[in-house]
Amino acid sequence: MSREREFLQQVLPNNPSAVAFCETVFEISQVLDDLIDGDAQLDQGTVIRAFWRALIDLPDNPFYRQHEPFLRPQLATALQDWTDSVTLERSGDEHDRHLAFVLRDQLSGVVVQCTRLVGGYELMRQVGPTVRRFFHDERLNDYVAGFEVMATKPKTRIPILPTRRAWKKASRRMRHERRRWWQR
Question: DSSP code of 13?
Fold first, then answer.
């Protein structure tokens, strides 16, 4: 069992659906982050699985279904905060990067709200700071120093899925090849 799952089971006691919901959201968000940052090579199976988790598994989760009117805005806020953090960290401005550091990991706030849904206000107040420490364990100075390291490395982005232009070009090439084959 992973350290993360053990932790989630502690702060979301007796609710495996809530734990599964959080794990699903984390998996989806990690793939999205890797796609946008280009800092990890993802195979197509990983991308397809993330879409499956987002479109099929997440809406099918009993905890999500029960609390969807509350959780959906939480997820929307976390996604927008993360999106803003990407823009801010790429600006190069020191203050923007500090803002990005704060905004980029708002899924911990979703977990805190899940603790309230599972155990009420008192559980949320009791474990909230612990949840945030667990998931936001990187220090600001380490985060900022990472930009200096990234600046010295060449950016290697391997496209996982072809662009629309590439699909059109390949489609034209295939039509052309079929015509040539039929003309033989």
Answer: T
Instruction: Report yes or no: 87 and 58 within 8 Å, Cβ to Cβ.
Output: no
C-alpha neighbours within 13 Å on the C-beta side of residue 12: 24
Number of CB atoms found within 10 A of residue 54's CB:
17
Is the model's pLDDT at 153 over the cut of 60?
no
Supply the DSSP string of 78-111, one letter for each residue. Answer: HHHHHHHHHHHHHT--HHHHHHHHHHTTTHHHHH
Question: 100 near 144, Cβ under 8 Å?
Answer: no
DSSP at 184: -
Rounded to two decimals, the pTM is 0.79
Q: 18: Cβ–Cβ under 8 A, 6 or more apart, which residues?
A: 8, 12, 63, 114, 117, 118
Rounded Cα–Cα distance for residues 106 and 41 (Å)? 24
Helix, strand or coil for residue 145?
helix
DSSP-derived 3-state class of residue 154? coil
- The number of residues making up the chain comes to 184
Contact 81, 103 (CB under 8 A): yes
Residue 50: per-residue pLDDT: 96
Residue 160's pLDDT band (cuts 50, 70, 90)? very low
Cα within 13 Å of Cα(149), Cβ side: 7
